[in-house]
């Protein structure tokens, strides 16, 4: 199951596709793929846009 993270509040959830409206923000947030497999973040296993927090 892919993991998604809200780019605004950091809310994460697991779903096949990100929701249109963030359950936490109640806004149409951009959801970032939290289970990142691209070469840029394969070492850390996290999308660099999210950061290392
Ligand atoms: Zn949010």
What does this structure look like?
The protein has 53 residues and is mainly β. The protein has one domain (1-53). Helix content is 0%, strand content 19%. It has strands at 3-6, 12-14, 31-33. The chain has a three-stranded antiparallel sheet, with no helix packed on it. Strand 1 and strand 2 (12-14) form a beta hairpin. The protein is globular, with a radius of gyration of 11 Å. The protein starts with a strand and ends in a 20-residue tail after the last strand. The mean pLDDT is 81. Zinc ion (ZN) binds at residues 6, 8-9, 11, 22, 24-25, 29. Zinc ion is lined by residues 6, 8-9, 11, 22, 24-25, 29.
Tally of domains: 1
Rg is: 11 Å
The fraction of residues assigned to DSSP E strands is 15-25%
Q: How would you state the average pLDDT, rounded?
A: 81
Instruction: Give me the count of strands.
Output: 3
Helix fraction bin = under 10%
Q: SSE order, as H and E? A: EEE
Please give the order of strands in the largest beta sheet. 2-1-3
Q: Report the major sheet.
A: 3 strands, antiparallel
Strand pairing plus helix content: what structural class? mainly beta
Tell me, what's the shape? Answer: globular
Bound molecules: zinc ion
Q: Low-confidence parts lasting 5 or more residues at pLDDT below 50?
A: none
Q: State the helix count.
A: 0
Alpha-carbon distance between the termini? 22 Å
């Amino acid at each position: 199951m892919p993991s998604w993270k809200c780019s605004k509040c950091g809310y994460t959830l697991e779903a096949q596709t990100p929701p249109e409206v963030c359950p936490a923000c109640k806004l149409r947030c951009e959801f970032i793929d939290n289970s990142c497999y691209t070469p840029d973040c394969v070492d850390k296993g996290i999308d660099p846009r999210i950061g290392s927090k």
